[in-house]
UniProtKB/TrEMBL annotation:
It comes from the Eukaryota. This is PGG domain-containing protein. Keywords: Membrane, Transmembrane, Transmembrane helix. The chain crosses the membrane at residues 70-92, 112-135, 147-174, 186-206. It comes from Symbiodinium natans.
Amino acid sequence: MDPFKKKLAQPVVSTWSSNVKQMLQASDDPKDFHDTLVAMLQSNGERYQFAVSLIQEGWETTVSKHQNNWVNMGVVGALILSVLFSAMNQPFAKSPADDMWRELRDFFEKALVVLIYLSTTFGLVAVILSITLLVHMSFFVHDPDDLLYFMLVHTGSFVDLSLIFCLVCFGISVPMAAVVTLEDPTMLITFVPVAIILLGVLGFYLRSLYLLSRREKAKATPSHKQSFVQIVADAYAQIQLENGVTEEPTGEGKVVEVVSPNRADELHESSM
């Protein structure tokens, strides 16, 4: 049995329906909101994941979650930026030791400078983008319609990528700094464990990213998507029936005209 169908039998689905109804009631154009949300549910990647998160958590919780994420990433980027800016102003002193690493130190010294500048730039970009997204969201997102449009405009994870590149460049520069500033055997004792630890952390990150991405793709089956589309369609139909003559969406995002019972009586009396 599909695990999602088991989940549908639980009361949590009523919470999801309630979240969708609340968003439709707060929307300036419920039909347009419905169509946009259904289109996102039928897509893949970040848009689909955002639409599912919106249904499960509600739009206000989703706004708060994104704001917290951007604040956290901005703070991390600012901390790294402060450390790297100090390194830019106080270059590493190259070791004068005449050992087996002497010929490589000139190359590593130049590469270290490049990595520090790249890491600083990516850290600055992460901070700027975090502040920009926070300010724009607080200024322009006031209802579910604004939130959908905002997330459609900002579909890329540029803050995440900037911070990741910043950390990768920063991580590579650490063992390089050991080669430039230290001499044998201290350099070798430092370089080997530092490089192994950083490679292990990178492997852990890539493994986690791969497994979680594969799970997300496995969950995004046609039946899974259709179940969410049906939740949105049912909530839209209920809202429209409460308001009289309406257009009720089908499970595939199409619409057919329906008339509420009270409104049908009024139409019948007016035709007599």
